Structures are given as C-alpha cells and as structure tokens.
Queue: 2 jobs
Job 1
Amino acid sequence: MKNNVEMKEKRRYIRTDTSMLMVLRLKEGDSLREIKSVTRNISATGMMIEVENELPVGTQIQIDLTAPESVNPVHCAGKVIWSAPLAGGGKYTNGVEFTNIEEDNKNTFLKFLCDVIYKASGKAS
C-alpha cells in the first residue's frame, strides 16, 4: 500500500501579499498600548503582521487598518493565533484572525481586498 501524503491548503480565502500600515491597540490592565505595525499579507478572514515584540497567542487586539486611497482607517478586532520570530532576530510575524469588522467599514475593507487581489493577479494596469 502506498502512503501518499497530500498537502492541502487549509485557507478558505485567497491570501495576498501586501504591505499596509496599521495601528494595533492591546489592552494591558486598565490602559491601552498602541503599536504601529505593517501587514505582510491579508485575506478576508485574517492577516500576517510584522511587529517589534512578540504578541502572545490569544491576545485580543483592536486594529486601525489604513487602506491605500482610503480617507479613514478600517476599524476591526482580531485575535493572535500564532507568533514566530523572524530570521535575524528583533522582529516577529504574527497570524491574526479577524473577529469583527465594524459594519460601516465592511464595504471599504472588501473593496480594498478585491482591488489588492485583482492587482496581484497581474490583470490591473
């Protein structure tokens, strides 16, 4: 009997490499700590981000995501689902699952995401 192991993609949505600035807010006791970050890639359900300090798995964060050509940032919430140091040290990548996108921001976010995917496909001029 042959042992065929297939690598199956677990993601349900296309993930696209893109770099966007954002501000993360983490609750620490009675105060909020703000961290500036950048995305490495993004999808409809989450993103990979780069930060200076490790964010523990399970950390709940508020996110202000600034999409290019957008007047206001998209406000959403997320949860860190994995964390790993970058080669060379000093920075970490983290997987963030979106847990909520504010209702009035969903169309802005989805339009941005569609534009990024379209451009990444090489069909945009």
Job 2
Amino acid sequence: MINGNVYDFESIKVMLPTGPIIMLESISYKDKKDDEVITGINNLPVGIGRGEYSGECELEFSRYEYEKIDIYAASFGGFYNLPPIPVIVSYGHFGQAPVTDNLEVKFTERDFSASKGDKNLNIPIKGKLTAPIKSGGRPAYTPD
C-alpha cells in the first residue's frame, strides 16, 4: 500500500530508451547510503561519518524485450559499452496521478539461462545506479 492505495504488478509501467517494457517479469531496485555513527571516549556517539551512496537495479523480461535493448546497444559497440541509461518506473491507479521513479543505470550483468519445461525464456539484466534515485522528482540524496 502506498499513500493509502493498493497497487499490484499491473500498476507498474517501465520505460527504457527502447520504449515501454511490455513483457516485464520483474523489477527490483534499491539504494543505500552507508553513514555511520562515530564514537569517542567510552564509545559515546560524537557525530556521523558520511558514507557512500550506492544502488542497483534488476530487470527481468522476455527475450523479445532483451532483443530491443541488444539492437539499441549495437550502436554503442555492444551491451557492456552502453552508457548509463534512464529507467523510468511509474505506478498508479486509474484516475490518479502516477508516481514516477527515475533511475540512471549502468548495466553490468545479464543471464541467459534456461531449463527444460520453461515456458518463457526470460532474461534478467542487472546494473549499478550512477545517480541517486529521483522519486516524484525528489532526489534520494544530494551530495554536499
């Protein structure tokens, strides 16, 4: 539940530079900032040490959707030469303004596994965030 509204998987829309992802199996993204409490004499807190911001994103979709990315990547010299690309995730109920998360992701991993009995050949791709997530236009973190 978000802001008192119940969302389901059909509420999520994902857009890449290749267009909307129609055959999405799953999406996962997270970020963190590794701040730590600095202690002094007698282990009493004396301040906060600023840690690094980091995040990652994983998409799993059909082979058809992956092929669109692979064709797009060819103009950059291949999948691993892609620059960081925007991943736009929006969700919301009919009649309600959507909530939009903007990510910038450098994809660094892909998996082409398949097993006997698989009905769909899905391909997960993973990457690292190259900028803080913006949720509803608000950044999760602004460096000093």
